[in-house]
Amino acid sequence: MRVQIHGSELAAATAAAALSWVGHQVRWVPHASMRWPALQAADWLRREPDLLERLEEGLEQGTLSLANGEGAASGEAIDILWLALSPEQREEADELVAEVAGRQQGALILVNNSTFPVGETERLEARLGGNGRRAVALVDMIEEGRSWASFTRPGRWLLGCDDEHAEAQVRELLRAFNRRRDVMQLMPRRAAELTKLATIGMLATRISYMNEIAGLADSLGVDVEYVRQGMGADSRIGYEYLYPGCGFGGPHFSRDLMRLADVQEASGRQSALLEQVLDINEQKKETLFRKLWTHFHGQLEGRTVAIWGAAFKPGSARIDHAPVLTLLRALWAQGVRVQLHDPAAVPALRAEVGDHPLLSLFDGDPYAACENADALMLVTEWKHYWNPDWSRLAKLLHEKLLLDGRNIYDPTHVASWGLAYRGIGRRAEPGESSTR
């Protein structure tokens, strides 16, 4: 099929790579704000497993072509117009659809893969001008850090579609990724658009609720890990998204949650629950700072803290809405020097905060960030942080304090190395001390 994809989002890049990989003729039009040369150099794209290689393979084989600067105009007819735009590019989507529809002869299917307001797919269909042209909502299910795998081996496709012909065309478009079993979940367009936002809201609610329970566990002297396992064992609840931590972030998760809040407000229905979820998350981003403050009785000026991890999640180079940004502001306000290590997100952090006099950045040896530090904060749970050299760490940290923002360490084991452990609702077993 002849496909034209618009956008510079991860979803657009992944669709361009995957659809051209299976033989569709794909023309990709990156957004003017980030054309192909900038995308090629972007850390977040380069660190996506397999993705850049597949894009370059498609360009080399001729199944993928790039439009840089010439907009949507093309002399060739297309079968599929695929939009993977950011919410801020909604108005541009109107103009783009009208432009393509105006020059296109015959049938056309619009695949709206953008996170726009509920009802937007129907509105875009009206811009197609009729004549059997249809628009469907294909919910963006891409997972950052494993976008190629999540597109080519999907757990499900959530398709909002009210027309049998359009459904058949989309099924044919995605047939190569729907062979093991039928993973296409079909529903009306508005329902699909709301389902995406509602899912994000539910996941965020679970995280924030678990963080509230972790705070209560701290107050009551209970290790929240017992509580998490007990809750997760209940088949009505399960274990997913029940891990307490120092707050969530990310360019898509946070943005989609705000989009749900906007939808609530626009409908005239205020959501006290959603407001609480957002408030709890912002408060949790300061959790490690408050634990540090308590440990040192507010005497923080002149201290040095090491931080492991800045990216909003492991496997990503992005720091959009990441907890580390809130944490840094709180530390600097108290005159704390920060030595931060992250294997991928250092360029993004440097671009965000510039050259701050109280910040040193490291992307090589994580232990270099711990030299002359009083304490270590674990903010992003990259896999190579999971099993550190405890003996080396105990020697490097002057005050022997470890603040675990993701609860990845065993408190009792950490305490056995003579380190003071502070997690999110976690604690070492009573009586444990250094045995080494």
Automatic annotation (TrEMBL):
Query: Reaction catalysed by this chain?
Result: UDP-alpha-D-glucose + 2 NAD(+) + H2O = UDP-alpha-D-glucuronate + 2 NADH + 3 H(+)
The protein's matches in SMART domains, at most eight in alphabetical order, are given as: UDPG_MGDP_dh_C
Q: Which InterPro entries match?
A: 6-PGluconate_DH-like_C_sf, NAD(P)-bd_dom_sf, UDP-Glc/GDP-Man, UDP-Glc/GDP-Man_DH_C, UDP-Glc/GDP-Man_DH_C_sf, UDP-Glc/GDP-Man_DH_dimer, UDPglc_DH_bac
Keywords associated with the record:
NAD, Oxidoreductase
| UniProt keyword NAD, yes or no | yes
Q: What is its EC number?
A: 1.1.1.22
Has the keyword NAD been applied to this entry?
yes
Pfam families named among the record's database cross-references: UDPG_MGDP_dh (PF00984), UDPG_MGDP_dh_C (PF03720)
Start and end of every UDP-glucose/GDP-mannose dehydrogenase C-terminal domain?
306-411
Q: Which family does this protein fall into?
A: Belongs to the UDP-glucose/GDP-mannose dehydrogenase family.
Q: What is this protein called?
A: UDP-glucose 6-dehydrogenase
Organism of derivation: Billgrantia aerodenitrificans
Q: What is the lineage of its organism?
A: Bacteria, Pseudomonadati, Pseudomonadota, Gammaproteobacteria, Oceanospirillales
